[in-house]
Amino acid sequence: MIMAYVAQFFWGWLLASLLLGLAMGWISVVQRGEGVTGAWGRALWALVGVLLALAVSQVVPGRPGYWLDLGLVMFGLYLAGCVVGSWLRARVVARTAPPA
Amino acid sequence: MHGLFRWSSKWWPGAIALVVLWALATWTSTEPLEGDLAARSNAAVRDAVLDKKRVTVAGRDVSFAAEAFSADGRRAALSAVESVPGVRLVNDETRLAPEATPFVWSAERDVVRVTLSGSAPLPQVKGRLLEAAKAGGGNVEVADQMRLARGAPPRFDAAALLLLDQLGKLKDGKLTISDDKISLSGMARELGGREAIASALKNLPEGFSVAANDVKAPPYVFQAYKDPVASTLTLTGNVPDKSVHAALIATAGRKFFAEKVVDNLKESIGAPASFAAVMGPALSALSRLSTGTLVVTDREVKLSGDALYDAAAAQIRAGLGKELPPNWQYKAEITVKPPSAPVDNTVCQQLFADLLTKTRIRFESSKADLSPDSLGLLDRLTETALRCPTANIEIAGHTDADGDANANQSLSERRAQAVADYLVRGGLPANRFTAVGYGSAQPMAGNDTEEGKAQNRRIDFVVK
């Protein structure tokens, strides 16, 4: 219900998040380098977990609470875009690469 | 799956762009979102019966403050706001409207406005009361100082509307409902208004009773103003009924022979007892004044003005009080008109003739007692005699030819003497007057008609 309302009100921003995720996922498959790993990676995922817990428990009041919800929804769509983008790129790479 | 995990470590840099996107989204969307939610929340409780309604939105949280008139109404309004799409939390700042004990409501009327104050049970009742006050009070301004509160007695609105209907009958005053007791005070606009209000109160809804009805009737006022310049006698105010009204106009016509009677009287109930009996002597006294005002209020007679000469002033001051019924008050403010310039004997004769052609000196039937209707004329004759100090005057009495000649002779002599005595009482020396009776020997008109006989029954003034 709430999501439906937010989606209706801000579909532009949400679509932008999704497209950003697709683009990032597409790039990440062929990008060289390590990315964010180890302690940093775990800290970031932990941060996302904490923010999610705060949003679900609705303890952040007023405007910050709304901003948190909006940020998490955008992040969720970004992640979904990344997953789809990476998966698509992985399939393309597998088809075109010469057999090892 | 392993691939996803490996790739995911490279998704983080994109989060920087996402944060920028998020910042832009919050920057542009917060206020429109709050405006939208406030509008939807207000729409959700538009028809709810609430007072002091206030909706404020921060993010997706709504603070909802209001005073409700029942626990059910309060819960319903709260859940209506909670079910608005997009609302995350509702901060409940609602409460029940205060309960008034005792539940007091009042409507007060003065010259320019009607003020409604105290407690009203519901917003729509309050609106109806305001409309009724506007309709009932005529074109007066209506000031609303009512607060909303719980605790009204059953059928409160019917009782309040009935009272507001009575407001138009008051000139000023206050109507109060305190729980189921009603009290009224003030002054009715018209005579009879107090009685009309009392009978309307018999239709009060069940459970209500009148604790105090102190509405006063307006004073019963009769006024007569004699204006020597316009030569009018203006009658204003109230008379008890049609017959007294007609009798009063007839009396005024006889007593004020030189003035036109302007009748602005209104017939109305509520006259003091013996009103009609007071009018005769009071108008007689007024007829003796050159200019004057007579005011009869409840049981008080007030006479002010200018008498024609000193003795008349003294007689009017002392006289009327004795003729009034017991329990009546008499207040006289009588001054004396400045004396007119003396005239010679020829003019004097002319002035007498002028007065006596307008009307005649009247007596009680077959008697030599002066009629009170002629006092005004006699005072004018006295005033004229005072203006010609050297004239010797014959006062000639005449009768019609009816009856015994000797009796007529005697009656004419006694009537002439009565007039001479009146002039002497007015301060003139007795030796200037000769009272002569001619019986029916010098008729002015034929004695064969009633009109002719009336003309023959007369007193003439002859300057010698």
Explain briefly what this protein structure is.
Chain A is an all-alpha fold and 100 residues long. Chain A is built from 4 helices and no strands. Chain A has one domain.
Structural overview:
The complex is a heterodimer of chains A (100) and B (464). Chain A is mostly helical. Chain A has one domain (2-96). Chain A has helices at 2-9, 11-28, 38-57, 62-96. The longest helix of chain A has 35 residues, at 62-96. Chain A is flat, with a radius of gyration of 17 Å. Chain B is an alpha/beta fold and 464 residues long. Chain B is 39% helix and 29% strand. Chain B contains 13 helices and 19 strands. Chain B has helices at residues 2-8, 12-44, 71-82, 123-136, 156-166, 193-200, 242-255, 275-287, 310-323, 345-358, 375-387, 405-425, 450-456, and strands at 50-58, 61-68, 89-92, 95-96, 104-109, 113-120, 141-148, 170-178, 181-188, 209-216, 221-227, 232-239, 260-267, 289-297, 300-307, 329-336, 393-398, 433-437, 458-463. In chain B, a hairpin with a 3-residue loop joins β5 (104-109) and β6. In chain B, α8 (275-287) packs antiparallel against α9 (310-323). The longest helix of chain B is centred in the N-terminal third of the chain and has 33 residues, at 12-44. The radius of gyration of chain B is 43 Å and the shape is rod-shaped. The A-B interface holds A 1-2, 4-6, 9-10, 13, 16-17, 20-21, 23-25, 27-29, 31, 33-37, 41, 44, 58, 61-67, 69-71, 74-75, 78-79, 82-83, 86-87, 90 and B 3-4, 7-15, 17-18, 21-22, 24-26, 29-30, 33, 36, 58-61, 85-86, 88-89.
Structure characteristics:
heterodimer, A: 100 residues, 4 helices, B: alpha/beta, Histidine-containing Protein, Chain: A, 6-stranded mixed sheet, 13 helices
